[in-house]
Design a protein that fits this description.
4-stranded antiparallel sheet; two-stranded antiparallel ribbon; mainly beta
């Protein structure tokens, strides 16, 4: 049997990372142009604030190459700024070489998707 020492080394350095996306608290209220919308459009008028339909995307990257290895997302929680997901995801990672990106989106029916934040 022939073993590749580089592959063996990568396997020894890898770990299983468990990520639990629990909830969001007071997510940003944004209009379709991405501006904060706490007091109406540009503060000119007050209007009822639309609730959001948030979900989270988690992307695992190779840090030096900026190459995506895995992508998962939570379910969408309808009409809330305080979603509770309580979802777990597992990734095989190399702590020195991989990066995990969290992005919170609004499932917006008018446009493709609205980004609410990066973590």
């Amino acid at each position: 049997m022939k073993l590749d020492s580089q592959s063996l080394c990568v396997q020894e350095e890898s770990r299983i990372l468990r990520v639990k996306v629990v909830s969001g608290i007071d997510l940003a209220k944004k209009d379709i142009f991405g501006a904060r919308n706490d007091n109406g459009i540009n503060g000119l008028c007050k209007r009822e604030q639309k609730q959001r339909d948030p979900y989270v995307k988690l992307s695992l990257y190779v840090a030096d190459e900026n190459r995506e290895l895995a992508l998962v997302q939570t379910k969408t929680i309808k009409k809330t700024l305080n979603p509770k997901w309580n979802e777990e995801f597992y990734f095989r990672v190399n702590p020195t070489n991989h990066r995990l990106l969290f992005e919170v989106f609004d499932e917006n029916r008018l446009s493709e998707k609205t980004l609410n934040g990066l973590f």
